[in-house]
Write a structure and sequence with these properties.
single chain, 628 residues, alpha/beta, Alkaline Phosphatase, subunit A, 2 domains, eight-stranded mixed sheet, five-stranded antiparallel sheet, 18 helices, 15 strands
Length: 628
């Protein structure tokens, strides 16, 4: 049995080494993510240690997947009396490659988690077709460098140690008695059985699920135990399962009835009046990652957005506005066409592009020249095809800009975008226009122009200063244009970003965005009612004097404030109002309820109402998409 013990001990050593490496990476995430810990969890070492125990549990599931094939091959080799280099070298290379992938995913997950407050999931495949842009984002963003360096160091260490383990385990041809073959075969089968059990992760009918990592009331510790590779694989598999591609939140007919009543869909549909005199121009600025929590008005002490703060005081300023999702495609789709984000799905992708009625189509129908300005390539997220199909006459993108102005993989910087757009608007000012400008600078990798002197030395704060400054310069230049006084400007975030601590499973700063509507002729007011990106359409059309009754999810915030805000973040959805926040994760059927920031398990009538509204929105949206 000597050869059996030596060879199988070698596989166990590799298995254990992999678990140690993943634990070190989890420790790294824990250290750099200390600011996510809630007050109750700080200093509670047993509570924190539980996350690592559960993390080891999930890590072992992935490790057993990687061990199963080598274990079987080694058993066959043992029974044949050969465990030489020709057998062990391929096994070793297989494990080194597969473990290299797992280690890379866990290392790459650290900056991803710090930015999104969630592990790598199936939503990243939305970026897969943009390989050059994705690589440019990773290798152009300094925050990715330390995890990449850690990955290289750990991988080199892993390869060196596994090679050393292998050399000690190599055994050429040897003779086995029948007794040793039987004993070795039985023990090997037991080990394979234990490995399969490790893959399932638990006793019972169903294998381990992500929900097994959740054990306390601290959102960070609950997620810390999830293995990034496990999360990525399971979420990807869920995407491919027909039953999971559709939401099953409630009866679809009931959901449609609720939404029809809520938005008055049963009323007669009328289109905008086509011959309005003195039509105002409309300029919509979607600000990349502009969380409301970056503004001084919402308590930020960094003086990052002096212009937006001052403009808010001269405008219709909606203090409780929320983005539909946490990605730019969600912000574009929801703001322009007034539909909720359908979880992690990108509604602009696909070769079969449905026609959506929304703000661009309404204004186009009323004689407006419609234009969309972006910093990057027009093919990104299928924007060119989608936007041209849905109400835009002209698309301006990286293909139209001088090559020397391209700053990184996401194209030109904000100040050039505004300058270029201003020239085009002056050219089109003879007729009413609707222009949408999508900024990018507040998205990593951050690139600050040499001429900009930021007060903050931290790039993540300095870039917000620059984004705010670029908008100021645009307004100052536009104020000298003939069309300025006859224009309505709408400024809002395409989504937010994580600011300081994560307060729950759906950090508020990621969806809470500023919504500012400014025009020289509009009386300033601060409006505290609930609002979403979906409401931009009907509110703007109301300001233009146009009556639109399209069947979407928009309300006129000036006459019909929302009772609550609903939004999503890839694999979770939420609804909030008056101190209540209801969160639901469809994949695991988990729900989290917060009242005044504290987790509660008492579902009162408000939580029940939020749940019904939230489910009705998403279930109805899915039905509409299904029917094109």
């Amino acid at each position: 049995m000597k050869h059996f013990k030596t060879s199988f001990l070698y596989l166990i050593k590799v298995h254990a080494l992999g678990l140690i490496v993943l634990t070190l990476l989890r420790l790294g995430l824990f250290v750099v993510g200390q600011h996510f810990l809630g007050k109750e969890a700080i200093g509670d070492l047993p509570l924190q240690a539980t996350a690592f125990v559960r993390g080891l549990w999930f890590d072992n599931v992935i490790a057993c997947y990687l061990l199963l094939l080598p274990l079987f091959v080694a058993l066959v080799g043992y029974e044949m009396g050969y465990l030489g280099r020709r057998l062990l070298v391929p096994i070793t290379r297989f494990m080194q490659i597969m473990w290299g992938v797992v280690i890379f995913i866990s290392a790459a997950d650290i900056p991803y988690f710090l930015y999104f407050f969630k592990h790598l999931n199936a939503s990243i495949w939305n970026w897969a077709e943009y390989g050059a842009t994705g690589m440019g984002m990773i290798f152009g963003e300094p925050s990715y460098y330390p995890p990449l360096a850690v990955f290289i160091v750990l991988l080199v260490m892993f390869v060196m140690l596994t090679n050393r383990f292998m050399r000690k385990a190599v055994a050429r041809h040897f003779h086995l008695s029948l007794k040793h073959r039987i004993w070795g075969g039985c023990i090997g089968l037991i080990l394979i059985g234990l490995c399969i059990f490790g893959i399932r992760g638990r006793v019972g009918y169903n294998p381990i699920k992500v929900s097994a990592a959740y054990y306390c009331e601290d959102a960070f510790l609950n997620q810390l135990g999830v293995n990034p590779t496990f999360n990525l694989l399971t979420s990807t598999l869920d995407e491919f399962r027909p039953e999971n591609r559709e939401l099953h939140l409630m009866d679809t007919d009931e959901a449609i009835r609720n939404i029809s009543q809520y938005y008055g869909w049963n009323e007669a549909v009328s289109l905008s009046s086509p011959n309005k005199e003195n039509k105002k121009n409309v300029v919509l600025i979607l600000m990349e990652s502009m969380s409301a929590h970056l503004m001084e008005r919402f308590g930020n002490k960094g003086h990052l957005t002096p212009f937006l703060d001052s403009l808010a005081q001269q405008s219709l300023f909606f203090t409780n506005c929320y983005s539909a999702g946490i990605h730019t495609n969600h912000g574009i789709f929801s703001t322009l066409y007034s539909f909720p984000a359908l979880m992690g799905r990108n509604m602009m992708k696909g070769t079969d592009i449905p026609h959506y009625e929304g703000l661009p189509t309404e204004l186009q129908r009323n004689g407006y020249r419609t234009m969309f300005f972006m910093t990057h390539e027009s093919q990104y997220d299928n924007m060119n095809a989608f936007l041209r199909t849905n109400g835009y006459d002209e698309i301006f993108s990286q293909e139209d800009y001088p090559a020397e102005k391209v700053a990184n993989s996401f194209g030109v910087q904000d100040d050039f975008l505004f300058s270029y757009a201003l020239d085009r608007l002056n050219e089109k000012s003879s007729s009413p226009f609707f222009a949408t400008l999508l900024t990018i600078s507040n998205h990593p990798p951050y690139v600050l122009p040499e001429w900009f002197d930021a007060k903050n030395k931290d790039d993540e704060k300095a870039i917000v200063e620059y984004a705010d400054h670029s908008i100021r310069r645009f307004f100052e230049a536009a104020s000298h244009c003939s069309w300025y006084k006859n224009t309505i400007f709408i400024l809002l975030g395409d989504h937010g970003k994580l600011i300081e601590k994560a307060d729950n499973e759906m950090p508020e700063s990621y969806n809470h965005i500023p919504l500012i509507i400014y025009s020289p002729g509009i009386k300033p007011a601060e409006i505290d009612g609930w609002a979403t990106q979906m409401d931009v359409q009907r509110t703007v059309l109301s300001l233009l004097g146009m009556d639109s009754r399209l069947k979407n999810f928009s309300v006129d915030l000036l006459s019909q404030p929302r009772p609550c805000a609903v939004y999503t973040a890839d694999d979770v959805m939420g609804a909030r109002c008056n101190g209540h926040l209801y969160i639901y994760r469809p994949a695991t059927k988990q729900e989290f309820m917060y009242h005044d920031g504290m987790l509660t398990h008492q579902r009162d009538t408000t939580f029940q109402h939020l749940r019904t509204i939230l489910f009705s929105h998403l279930q109805t949206m899915q039905a509409l998409v299904k029917k094109h």
